[in-house]
Amino acid sequence: MARKPSERSNSKEEEQELNLAPIMALICILIPALIFAFQFYEITVQSVAAPKLGPKSSQKEDDKDDKPPLNLTVLISDKGFVLKWSDEITAEGGEPPRIPRKVFKDEEGNQVEEYDYPKLYSAVVAKKKDYPEEDSVNIGADFAISWQVVARTIDCVRVRLAEDAYDDLKEYSSAEPLKGEKKKSAGVDMEGGLQVPLFPKVVFVVAE
Question: Which terminus of the chain has a lower count of CB atoms within 10 Å, N or C?
Answer without folding.
Answer: N
